[in-house]
Design brief:
By secondary structure, the chain is an alpha/beta fold. The protein contains 10 helices and 5 strands; from the N terminus they run βαβαααβααβαααβα. It has a single domain, classed as P-loop containing nucleotide triphosphate hydrolases (Rossmann fold, 3-Layer(aba) Sandwich), CATH 3.40.50.300.
């Protein structure tokens, strides 16, 4: 049975780059590695509907904190069997975003404090309880502050017409709140052990768990 590691952080934090580096270095060590990216845009209808809502479609869907969390949860739930199979067949399974993203964004949108947040408890009960998603063995938070992550997202959108900034990415107050929520989730050890790092330290934090 392999280990499941979730890589978390704001849009523009560099999750895709870090996941790629961990994948390549772990593979070079002889480990069997596979990767999941959430939300599964272009593959999951619920993920695509959520994305469309964040770009102004589907009426007031994006205004509902619980509604958006359910959309993203259903996307992950549909990948549950594949995730469990991957954990059985690989040494390392990497998730580029996972359940903690819904916990952080939902708490930040509602102004709830981690540790006494009904929505965070609801996310855990829904996804790990009702949907029976595998709990991560470790979670890595990329320590890239909101102003840096937002600048990266803006620059990416300016050069890639297929990746425009969505409603969440354009909201500076929300991004700052999400960063605080993520930091508090990591500090509290929500659902697993956490590392809070960036770049080389982030890669090492995961590779060290392979032994």
């Amino acid at each position: 049975m392999g280990i499941l590691v979730a890589i978390e952080g704001l849009d523009g934090a560099g999750k895709r780059t870090i996941v790629g580096r961990i994948h390549n270095e772990a593979t070079a060590r002889g480990a069997r590695v596979t990767t999941f990216t959430f939300p599964r845009y272009g593959e999951s209808i619920t993920a695509d509907l959520a994305s469309e809502a964040l770009h102004g479609e589907h009426g007031d869907l994006r205004d509902s904190v619980y509604g958006m969390a359910i959309m993203f949860a259903l996307d992950r739930a549909a990948a549950g069997t594949a995730l469990r199979t991957a954990c059985a067949d690989h040494d390392l399974v990497l998730c580029d975003r996972y359940v903690a993203s819904s916990a952080a964004y939902s708490a930040a949108r509602l102004g709830e404090t981690i540790g006494s947040s009904p929505v965070v408890d609801w996310v855990a009960d829904l996804e790990y309880g009702r949907f029976r998603l595998p709990t991560p063995d470790h979670q890595l938070l990329l320590g890239v502050p909101p102003e840096v992550a937002m600048a990266r997202s803006s620059g990416r959108a300016a050069t890639d017409a297929d990746r425009p900034m969505d409603h969440y990415e354009r909201d500076r107050d929300l991004q700052a709140g999400v960063y605080r929520a993520y930091s508090d989730l990591a500090a509290s050890g929500w659902m697993s052990t956490w590392s809070h790092a960036a770049d080389d330290e982030a890669v090492a934090a995961v590779l060290d768990r392979l032994g």
